[in-house]
Amino acid sequence: MAFGAFMASLDGSIVNVSLPTIARVFRLGSGEAASVILSYLLSLSGCLLIFGRLGDVAGKRRVFLWGQGVFLLGSLACGLAPGLASLVAARFFQGVGGAMLTVSSYALISQVAPRDLLGWGIGILTTAVGLGATLGAPLGGFLTDWFSWRWVFYINLPVGAVSLYASHAYLQREGADRSPLDLRGLLRRFDVPGALFSFLGILLLVFGLNRGREEGWTSPLILGSLLGAGIALGLFALAERRHPEPLLDRELLGRRGFRVPVLGSLPGYLFIGGNTLLLPFFLQGAKGLSAQGCGFAMLLFSGVYMLLSGVGGRTSDRISPRILCAVSQVGAAGCCVLFASTLHVPGLLFPLLFLVGLGVANGFFYPPMGNLVLGGVPPEMRGSASGIFSVANRVCLTLGVCLYEALFSQWAPGGIEAPASALAGFRAAYLVAAALFVVGALWILLVPGKDAPASTSPPSP
Question: In the prediction, which pLDDT does 419 show?
Fold first, then answer.
């Protein structure tokens, strides 16, 4: 499962560094080249909810194995693509496989890890996801420079083949996976209208939020996308009321143990999106670092986070994940306040301390949060829970870019080129982030819930 999650995460970033080469080979403009990345993001985001629910109905193991096959076929098609249209189509298909891998890998944790090791299993999986995101740029640059941009996709084939074999050999059939697949019965039970409306609504929403800054928020394309998203999601809500087995399980949404952590996690995902946008501008514009130096500085955060993800997950098996998540959010708020109050101090000491502290806070937040979310629902609902949680995360990552860019622009009308104005913009953005982290911590702590981690997990095999 870690291999599958690693591949899906890797392909979210490995292509970025090879885009200039792809654009040169196919003679593309920057907007056309960006569609190679956007097509993967859109299909992955739009399919998360669908395959989360499908895993509960048809079997999580089955969706995971299918996802590996779809992802490998998509990777091969990307490598063989003769032009832009075929490459974008192949990336879209690859994103479908990425969505299947993402939601089913987290949902399958409870079938693989014993009850008292669920947090540790999530921590290992989170480490694999972080490793994929971190290695994407350097690995993509190496493969592009020494071989060809096509090897950015071919590299998935040997890794995926090993993962597919191991998954088929060692993942046990549980629940719906034990029954033969009845396609007719599945189509009768599955919420097809809800799946179509949710896919279209999420796709248009993510597209509008992702391209709004480049195209202009008042452009017909963006306004039309956001309006279309609202209409599609409204039709999705109507379809959910009428279907006997809706895509959004009403019982799942009614569980406080699920709603509370999902909502409490949103400040963190908003901040990831915003910090990814703002921090490079600060390090290069205010501190004078080169692009390479900025990359190494941000790698410090990723390294600390990956080193501590397993520890954070294992700790959440012994200590209440609610407490760990709340304390981590307060710690992240403290890091943001420290950063905002030392922007004017020369040197890199405080920015590096901020990155290390943020890595520690995240390492003790995201794996326990996964433990809290999955531990709050029974095993037969964990596919849907993983899908809803993943969709909320994806939308918040994109929305965070918009939110923090707007905060920066509001307080820094002179832009990054005006030093005093820029510092005011950075300060406002990171102080707002600190306030949101505190709200998230209080939200998790003030609403009663079970402190015992993964209390609904199946017994240890």
Answer: 62
